[in-house]
Structure formats: structure tokens, C-alpha cells
Design a protein that fits this description.
It comes from Paraburkholderia caffeinilytica. By secondary structure, the protein is an all-beta fold. It has a single domain, classed as Neuraminidase. The chain is built from 2 helices and 26 strands. The longest helix has 4 residues.
């Protein structure tokens, strides 16, 4: 995958519904099941998962009350992989460990407004869709787990979590075996990102995370700051690095950055949610830029604002890499097959 993302988007793509049988709306998190994921579950390597933040239209379409993770079925309705109890508010913090477990953040509300938003928790779900653990704020030093990214090393992993209610980022050092995911240590590694409530977006704060293990750098999309920061030494740090280093503050192309992913070409990709610095001529844009902060390209996933949220890349296969982006205006996810010249090397 070389060059601009917009130049590589093929004319063919697949857009699928994210609305499960219970009617949950507002897809936020999106994650591919990685290669090496164990067999004999209800999800398998290559599957695409999406978490829902709102409940059904018939129940009010209230933020912070969605309870489902769905497995996407192209050209058909999704299959419910996980459904929890009422009032979970499953956020963009969705990730899959190749040891056989799914992690998802919960940021619930009592009535769909920021006035009643709760600190939430992180849920651990097995490959059959059953919850096996819950990590509370006291256990995991989290406060509104809004997004996460995982550096997966098989029997252990580093899980980075952005906390939308206190403007911090936490690293969770975990071990993984057949019995589950074990939280060994939680460390606050960054803080100071702007946070505030928002009538449309519920809350604004640090959201998208992308980790480069080769450089040991964690990139943080701070929505309310309308900026991207780099936290150096994030994988091993034992102290709070404040916001880290500002690397990208482009008011022309950034409009409330939310979900973020590190592409196989080494560039960063971020979805604009349009709650900050909105531009009606640039709705629901996904922006590609270099880690050094140079703009590369952008494209819109929806003609209306507020559609962008979670994005993800799959592992490259056969000279292609899949790229997924949710549209929470239409309650869909679109997957592109992008050429990637270095796949398989």
C-alpha cells in the first residue's frame, strides 16, 4: 500500500448493516479478528466486529445504552456475537486478542445524556460471546474507556485505553492463557487532554489510539483539542507523560478526530466526527497523514456530518489489506479491499 489512500480506494466495496436483532444503533467500535485466533467459537480469524453505543429507536435511541457486539455479514443482517445487560453503552474501545478473547469498553448513561454518564468498565468476552470478566475503574485505572488499541504478543499484551471522562490514557499489562485475560498492572501514561460534555456527541475527550511498537510511540487523537499527540516510550513508561508531543494540529483537515488507526504504509488515519471545528464542505472525512504531521489525503464516508467514528485495518493478505469504517449516521460499516504491494513480505 503506497501513495494516497484516496487514490487507492477501489470502485467496489461492501457496505453492511450494523443493526442487530434488538435494534441497537450508533456503531462506534470496529475490529477485525486477527490471524491465529482459536477455532471452535462463534467468531473466527478475518471476521469483522462492531460495537453499538445506542439502544433501539423504539427504546429512544439513547446514547450509552447499547449492549451488543455484532459480527458483520456482507450483504445481510449482522449476527449478534455478544449481548449484555441493559445500559452498557459499548464504546469505540473494541479490540480482539489472538489468544481468543474480545475486549470492549462500556460507558453507560441512565438517560442518554452527559448528565448521567458513568465511569463504565472494560469487559472481557470469550470466543463464544460470553462475558468472563469485568475490569472496573478501581482495578484498571479507567474512567470512561472511549477507545483502545492492543499490542498483542500472544501470551501477553499491552492494552492502551483512552479515558474520556478524565482526559487520560492508561496502559494495561495483561497475560493471556486458555482460562482468560489477566490484568497484571495498570499505569497512567498520559493526561491533560481537554474534556467536555457535548449535547450531540455526549462527551468529548481523548479517543483514537494507535501504537507503533517499533518506535514505542502511542498516538492519541484528542477530539476536544482537535489535535494528535505522540506519547514516546508508551509501552514501558512508569510515569505520566502529560499530553506527549503535539504532532498534528491541522484545522483545515481535522474536525474533531475520533477513531484512529496505523496503516500498513506507516501513515496514520483518523475519522473526523465533526463535533469540533466542523466544516459543512468536509463532512465525515477520514484523513491520512504521516507520523511527522504532514497531510496526505482525505475522503468522505457520508455526505452529512457526524458519520465517522471507528476505523480499522485487517492484517494484509495476498497483496491486499482490508480497511473498515463505520458510519453511525446510516448504522452501517463499509469495507474496502486496498492494494498493498508489500503484503506477504
Amino acid at each position: 500500500m503506497a501513495g494516497e489512500l484516496t487514490a487507492l480506494l477501489p470502485p467496489s466495496f461492501v457496505t453492511s448493516s450494523t443493526v442487530p436483532a434488538n435494534g441497537d444503533l450508533n456503531p462506534y467500535g470496529v475490529a477485525f479478528v486477527p490471524d491465529g485466533f482459536p477455532r471452535f467459537g462463534t467468531i473466527a480469524a478475518g471476521d469483522l466486529l462492531v460495537s453499538n453505543f445506542n439502544n433501539a429507536q423504539s427504546a429512544g435511541n439513547l446514547q450509552g445504552k447499547g449492549t451488543t457486539i455484532v459480527k458483520i455479514v456482507p450483504h445481510a443482517n449482522p449476527v449478534t456475537f455478544f449481548q449484555g445487560p441493559a445500559r452498557l453503552g459499548l464504546s469505540t474501545a473494541l479490540g480482539v486478542l489472538r489468544g481468543g478473547f474480545v475486549l470492549v469498553g462500556s460507558v453507560p448513561t441512565k438517560d442518554g445524556t452527559s448528565a448521567t454518564v458513568q465511569p463504565g468498565s472494560l469487559l472481557v468476552i470469550n470466543r463464544s460471546g460470553s462475558q468472563i470478566a469485568e475490569w472496573t475503574p478501581a482495578m484498571a485505572k479507567i474512567n470512561g474507556p472511549w477507545d483502545l488499541t492492543i499490542f498483542d504478543q500472544g501470551d501477553h499484551a499491552k492494552v492502551f485505553v483512552s479515558n474520556v471522562l478524565d482526559g487520560t490514557v492508561t496502559r494495561l499489562d495483561v497475560s493471556v492463557d486458555d482460562s482468560g485475560v489477566h490484568l497484571n498492572h495498570a499505569t497512567k501514561i498520559a493526561s491533560g487532554y481537554t474534556i467536555r460534555s457535548d449535547p450531540a456527541a455526549l462527551v468529548l475527550g481523548p479517543t483514537g489510539l494507535a501504537y507503533d511498537p517499533q518506535r514505542d510511540v502511542l498516538y492519541v487523537a484528542s477530539t476536544a483539542d482537535n489535535a494528535i499527540f505522540a506519547v514516546f516510550g508508551a509501552g514501558n513508561s512508569q510515569h505520566d507523560s502529560s499530553k506527549g508531543v503535539l504532532i498534528y494540529a491541522d484545522n483545515t483537515h481535522l474536525h474533531g478526530p475520533l477513531g484512529m488507526a496505523l496503516g500498513p504504509n506507516g501513515h496514520l488515519f483518523v475519522a473526523n466526527g465533526d463535533a469540533v471545528n466542523a466544516d459543512p464542505t468536509q463532512p465525515s472525512e477520514i484523513v491520512e497523514f504521516t507520523p511527522q504531521g504532514s497531510f496526505v489525503a482525505q475522503f468522505s464516508i457520508d455526505p452529512a456530518p457526524d458519520g465517522g467514528f471507528g476505523i480499522a485495518f485487517a492484517q494484509p493478505r495476498h497483496e491486499f489489506v482490508r480497511f473498515a469504517a463505520v458510519d453511525d449516521n446510516t448504522n452501517t460499516v463499509t469495507v474496502w479491499n486496498l492494494p498493498f504491494e508489500n503484503a506477504g513480505q
